[in-house]
Amino acid sequence: MLGSAEFGDAVVVADLEAGIGTLTRLGDEVVDVVLAVVEPTPKSIEVGTRAVALAREKSLGRLVIVANRVRGAEDVERLVAAFGEVELVAVPDDPAIVDAERRGVAPLDTAPDAPAVQALVGLAESLAPVA
Amino acid sequence: MRVAFVGKGGAGKSAIAGTFARLLARRDGPVLAVDSDPMPGLAFSVGVPVTDAPIPDEAVQERAEGEEGPRFRLREGLTAAEAVQRYAAAGPDGVRFLQFGKLRGSSGGLLRSQFAFRQILSSLPEEGWNVVGDLPGGTRQAFFGWGGYARTILVVVEPTAKSLLSARRLARLATVDPPPDAVVAVANKVREPGDVELVARRTGLEVVASVPWDEALADAERQGRAPIDAAPDSASVAAVASLLDRLGKVS
User: In chain A, which residues have their Cβ closer than 8 Å to the Cβ of B51?
Assistant: First the structure.
């Protein structure tokens, strides 16, 4: 669908299946940016490394590591060590997100000022600057 | 005992399955831990020092022309038990670890290993082998042939709106062949008194274990260590031990 539909000026945000299964089937030139969400754990870094390699191999577009549940500088350093030059945005570990998940509500509505939400606002603005 | 853990990605399947496999091996002898998720996960939680442990191509042969049956199978003369002994990675407490091949790039290449994986699970003798499986996150693959070995399906559920919805769908899809003896829920990351009741009510499943939110488990994940090694005295490992007690009594 991503490859065949005409979206015009609309912004499309696709939340792909966990892992890299969907990424292996994604054609080139159908997305502008690949956001790889990675936690600072060895499991997650392993998956992220494979996703980044694949996105590069297929030239899928701009690549950003979204480092999630970051607790401090050590976590960021670990991810920078794993992903080198890839652009990285850190989203802090934030109880407001846990709370919103439990309640099944959008964090942007219930906790717009929470640090994690603010980090994502910054990311969104860097991708699609407000005119 | 043959069990498979399913649930939404991030629900904590691998951490619970890995701990369960280790505890089961300590109590009841040989355990084959199987990971049919094409991304790494279970190996870390079992404490096996590998991320890829597929069945090598030379152990698999293609169906000859005109022959019946699956396209690939273990090479002639190689039994499922021998394949496990030879190719499954050895982990702590005598757990053997096997997975069906990890997706790495856009090229395929997992087909041979996956056919052999299925064959091993369907023909490994029940006598003498416990099997603990970690099925992929989400609902797509969970019951399409990969969980057929399991007599008990354990749906790992977080008390979040998304996880509860996934679990309810998984419970409905639990139509493996042959059908399992039981499909039950494990409530994970439990923080509040009403969480277990919430999981039971929203999934319609019996909740057989309540695993508390546990910083020790989160720390183990960050270190890439098996919870049972990093935090053997933690509340979450104790909860998995209770789960094993309970299933042991049921079977």
Answer: 46
Distance CA A67, CA A94 (A): 13
Q: What residues of A are in contact with residue B222 (Cβ under 8 Å)?
A: 40-41
Amino acid at A30: V
- What domain range is B51 assigned to? 2-250
Separation of alpha carbons B144 and B118, rounded Å:
12
Whichever domain contains B199, its CATH number is: 3.40.50.300
pLDDT by residue (tens digit) across B79-137? 999 999 999 999 999 999 998 766 555 455 677 888 888 889 888 988 889 999 998 76
Please tell me the total count of domains within chain B.
1
- Dihedral of the CA atoms A54, A57, A58, A62 (nearest 10)? 80
Q: What SS3 class is residue B89?
A: strand
8-state DSSP, B65: T
Can you spell out the DSSP letters for A4-67? TS--TT------PPSSSHHHHHPPTTS-SEEEEEE-SSHHHHHHHHHHHHHHHHTT-SEEEEEE
> Which residues make Cβ contacts (< 8 Å) with residue B232, sequence separation at least 6?
none
CA distance B226 to B204: 31
Rounded to two decimals, the ipTM of the complex is 0.79
**Closest residue in chain A to residue B41, using alpha carbons only:** A43
